[in-house]
From TrEMBL:
<dbReference type="Pfam" id="PF00027">
    <property type="entry name" value="cNMP_binding"/>
</dbReference>
<protein>
    <submittedName>
        <fullName>CRP/FNR family transcriptional regulator, anaerobic regulatory protein</fullName>
    </submittedName>
</protein>
<dbReference type="InterPro" id="IPR000595">
    <property type="entry name" value="cNMP-bd_dom"/>
</dbReference>
<dbReference type="InterPro" id="IPR014710">
    <property type="entry name" value="RmlC-like_jellyroll"/>
</dbReference>
<dbReference type="InterPro" id="IPR036388">
    <property type="entry name" value="WH-like_DNA-bd_sf"/>
</dbReference>
<dbReference type="GO" id="GO:0005829">
    <property type="term" value="C:cytosol"/>
</dbReference>
<feature type="domain" description="Cyclic nucleotide-binding">
    <location>
        <begin position="47"/>
        <end position="145"/>
    </location>
</feature>
<dbReference type="InterPro" id="IPR050397">
    <property type="entry name" value="Env_Response_Regulators"/>
</dbReference>
<feature type="domain" description="HTH crp-type">
    <location>
        <begin position="158"/>
        <end position="232"/>
    </location>
</feature>
<dbReference type="GO" id="GO:0003677">
    <property type="term" value="F:DNA binding"/>
</dbReference>
<keyword id="KW-0805">Transcription regulation</keyword>
<dbReference type="InterPro" id="IPR012318">
    <property type="entry name" value="HTH_CRP"/>
</dbReference>
<keyword id="KW-0238">DNA-binding</keyword>
<dbReference type="Pfam" id="PF13545">
    <property type="entry name" value="HTH_Crp_2"/>
</dbReference>
<dbReference type="InterPro" id="IPR018490">
    <property type="entry name" value="cNMP-bd_dom_sf"/>
</dbReference>
<dbReference type="InterPro" id="IPR018335">
    <property type="entry name" value="Tscrpt_reg_HTH_Crp-type_CS"/>
</dbReference>
<keyword id="KW-0804">Transcription</keyword>
């Protein structure tokens, strides 16, 4: 079977063997439908690296939840350059920003082999009317989206090293929430080029900051595999620049 944009639908049972079953929008929609003896309309879509889930201007007839892998949300600037707005990792909802317009205003592209759960809007609207759990999960996802946007807007005003440190720290904390506080390593699915475009840094600057963090003994890298050796130092670096902004913001107010 094929989904929109020639993506491949690989499963009609999205929650089977999924570590996030019961903890994402797709799974609570499936559960709400089952509680009312309705057949599930949520399916799993397989994407290969570089394959778009949807493109700018496509009809927004579903929201998606990343089951495995990763995607980038991007758009093209007036100058023709790629702008990366967000990275979507397992558990993240995709397409919430287009719900009011019914049209995608960004493009979502797989960074690696990726599976996403497709939740048709018709099914989402139906279960919203009957299930408080679906409403709560949707509000949680929207809240996290605003929180990530706020954090990103704050981060991009900081020095280069602080931006890299804040990004790595966010990845570390994300893994620790899922797998426990003992986790100190993770693999980045994005390239240095993509990371630079997301953080508004030149690729050379990103590479230089990674090298500096390794030389200082804060992290260890093997390709895209990162181990955090000094989390406290990373936290201190991530906060750098916040103090300098405070007087300026107070003066502007």
């Amino acid at each position: 079977m094929t989904d929109v944009n020639n993506t491949q639908t690989v499963s009609q049972f999205p929650c089977d063997n999924c570590l996030r079953s019961g903890r994402c929008l797709g799974s609570v929609v499936v559960k709400a439908g089952a509680d009312h003896q309705r057949a599930s309309e949520v399916t799993v879509v397989q994407l290969q690296r570089g394959q778009p889930l949807f493109r700018t201007g496509d009809a927004a007839n579903a929201v998606y939840v990343v089951q495995s892998g990763a995607l980038k949300a991007r758009r093209t600037s007036y100058e023709g350059d790629e702008e990366i707005l967000a990275f979507r990792l397992p558990g993240d909802a995709i397409g919430l920003d287009a719900l009011g317009q019914r049209m995608q205003n960004t493009e979502a592209v797989a960074l690696c082999s990726t599976r996403v759960c497709r939740v048709p809007l018709e099914a989402l609207h139906r279960e919203l009317r009957s299930s408080p759990e679906v409403s709560e999960m949707l509000f949680d996802d929207v809240g996290r989206e605003f929180e990530r946007l706020h954090e990103h807007l704050q981060t991009e005003r900081r020095p280069a090293q602080a931006r890299i440190a804040a990004f790595l720290l966010a990845q570390l904390k994300r893994r620790q929430r899922l797998f426990g506080a003992q986790i100190d390593r993770f693999t980045l699915p994005m390239t240095r080029v993509d990371l630079g475009r997301y953080l508004a840094l030149a690729t050379e600057t990103v590479s230089r900051m990674f090298t500096r963090l390794q030389q200082d003994g804060v992290i260890s890298c093997d390709g895209n595999a990162v181990q955090v050796l000094k989390a406290t130092a990373l936290e201190a670096m991530a906060g750098a620049g916040a103090e300098e902004r405070a007087p300026a913001l107070a003066k502007a107010a």
